[in-house]
Amino acid sequence: MTVILPAALILFLLATLFKISFIYSVSYVLFGVYLLATLWSARVLHDVRFRRRCAPRALHGDDVEVVLEIENRGWFPVPWMQIHERLPVALSSPPFFRSLVSLGPRETRRLSYLLHCRQRGWYQIGPLTVSLGDVFGLSARQGDVLPAEHLTVYPRILPIDELGFPSKSPFGQLRTPQILYEDPARVIGVRDYQVGDSPRRINWKVSASSGRLQVRKLEPAMTLEAVILLNVDTSDYTRQYAYAQTELAIEVAASLANHLVGLRQEVGLLTNGVDPIGEPVPGLVGYLPRKGRSQLTIILDLLGRLVVVNQRPFCMAVRGEMKRLPWGATLIIITSHESPELLETVLPLRRAGYNVVVVYMDYPNPEVFEEAQHRAALLGLRAYRIWREGDVDIWRQHIRAVV
Question: Among 50, 41, 126, 53, which residue's Cα sits nearest to residue 84?
Fold first, then answer.
């Protein structure tokens, strides 16, 4: 295109100087081709529509299909169009999708590619860039036609027993003589009907056999919320293990949240990590306890997006959040290792009536952990150790099976 216009001008000047009608004709043809090519490429770019379909969330290990739909709504064909989509290195190799297509009038083309979700994170898909031209191959236009979208890959979620915890969770639910409510799932016998009892609690079979109305006797219980307090400050971890252990800590938090929600417990998450789509806050980010799968979804969304930090004190932030924590909650603290500052934070929580469980991520030596576990038991705390080389062999076998 940059050559044909000067050539047409030069020929027009020569025709004017020498009065040669044939050169006039050639210059007019070149001018016509130039105008047609310019209008063609401009019209095609206006008539072509682009759509991208991609799931906003994915589980660890999933293969996510991204579909690009290209529709030519005009009557001009698209002789050639090059599609280029930028992709994250962690999900695709090479880190782009490229294709060359042509479209006839009123034609729709669908292209697709796969993203391999092998690492949790918040990933940008796109933007989508196209280059297209006219039928003469003289004019080309290029630009971004679709903005970037984001895909959240959740952390790996494993059963509690594979993490070294008992299969029946010790978190969240306690039996109590103080009747806050009676759990309809815990029937411990029957008793005589009393005025005010709900008809739905009448045991008609036993009533018929005894000759008087009997109602189900339920065990008094109360549900205590569980709050996961997650430390991802890399400066608290051993330097050479910091990245691996903070990522493992995030997976432990996701597994605990999934387990507790499966038990219909109220669970929340607070962490000193950074949420890239949230407003910066001085303390901990996250959510207070609630029930339901929707709560698990927002927790996993946060853990998928979470950015690990450096020099963002965890214990100080936990002390600052004490007023927000629900009374009597079970606090599951996931951190690196035992420290005087941690114990100074935990003991006031114990005295305030919280049930505290500590999960240590940075104890490669089991004997050193046993000493820390013994000290925790003397203070009335339960301590667990999760270390990738000893406790997560099953995880590595699972990864090898997937790959």
Answer: 126
